[in-house]
Amino acid sequence: MPPRDSCHDAVVKALIKDGWIVTHDPYTVDWKGKTLFIDLGAERMIAAERGSVRIAVEIKCFIGPSPVADFEQALGQFGLYDGVLSVVDPDRVVYLAVPDDVVSELFLEVFRELIVDQRLARVISVDLDREEIVRWIPSSPTPI
Amino acid sequence: MPPRDSCHDAVVKALIKDGWIVTHDPYTVDWKGKTLFIDLGAERMIAAERGSVRIAVEIKCFIGPSPVADFEQALGQFGLYDGVLSVVDPDRVVYLAVPDDVVSELFLEVFRELIVDQRLARVISVDLDREEIVRWIPSSPTPI
């Protein structure tokens, strides 16, 4: 199993604080003889008659020396997991969980066109100190 | 500048053998204060009245210990470069150049749905020993 990212626990606590139940840690997917490890599986109940929303969350702490290389790796993992889950578990929505300062500076500033316009990844922005979700990009999968 | 991948020269020779002129090695893109290095820029003349076709090629040799990790990195680089070039140089088409055995086993077998159906990356499959292009996925950008 790959090593956990350093902000793993803060992301778990932020999801729980937001009403999510962490059901898998990690969430594994078997695919043609290979096992993919996505950091978390989680679900949240919505109105009783509508059941629950399920997500898979890859946690990216951006602790490497090159933010652009970390961004590339995050995009690639998102693409792989999103592509595979769209086949094997299409109701589970994939997100990257990223520290909110990285989201502000890199995802919504430098690479805004790729994230907001082209939608190359879905992102949960997490305040690691407060252990709280700041925003979902695009908007939260749970209806208000 | 990042280190060259070990199959760099074979890919260059294969492109030249296929009628391409390598115009940039590397092809650099300035983007909001950051410089992106894509391995090659190349162009090929088509019928005189239609000018030339231009491509940017990221060379991925798949020499790491984990083919899936290399695949993720390749997907991420493709997504980043394709996303940025669609804004700054929309007529230049981005490709990954990959050894043909890796294309056969990984891109067209294990992750076929992602590459062929979902089109998460464009790929040039290169026979490194013969220094020849085997196929373009999807088809070649130069009309017959």
Strand tally of chain A is 8
> How helix-rich are the residues of chain A, as a percent range?
25-40%
Structural class of chain A: alpha/beta
Strand content range of chain A: 25-35%
- Radius of gyration from the alpha-carbon trace of chain A, in angstroms: 14 Å
Low-pLDDT segments, ≥5 res of chain A: none
What oligomeric state do these chains adopt? homodimer
Please summarize the sheet with the most strands of chain A. 6 strands, mixed
Q: Most extensive interface, residues per chain?
A: A-B, 26 and 26 residues
State the shape of chain A. Answer: globular
Mean pLDDT of chain A: 94
Major beta sheet, strand line-up of chain A: 1-4-5-6-7-8
* Secondary-structure element string of chain A: HEEEEEHEHHEE
The N- to C-terminal Cα distance of chain A equals 36 Å
Structural features, described:
2 copies of one chain form a homodimer. Chain A is of the alpha/beta class. The first copy, chain A, is 34% helix and 33% strand. The first copy, chain A, has 4 helices and 8 strands. Chain A has a 6-stranded mixed β-sheet with strand order 1-4-5-6-7-8, sandwiched between helices. A two-stranded antiparallel ribbon of chain A has the order 2-3. In chain A, strand 2 and strand 3 form a beta hairpin. Chain A is globular, with a radius of gyration of 14 Å. The first copy, chain A, starts with 7 loop residues before the first helix and ends in a 7-residue tail after the last strand. The interface between A and B is medium-sized, with 26 and 26 residues.
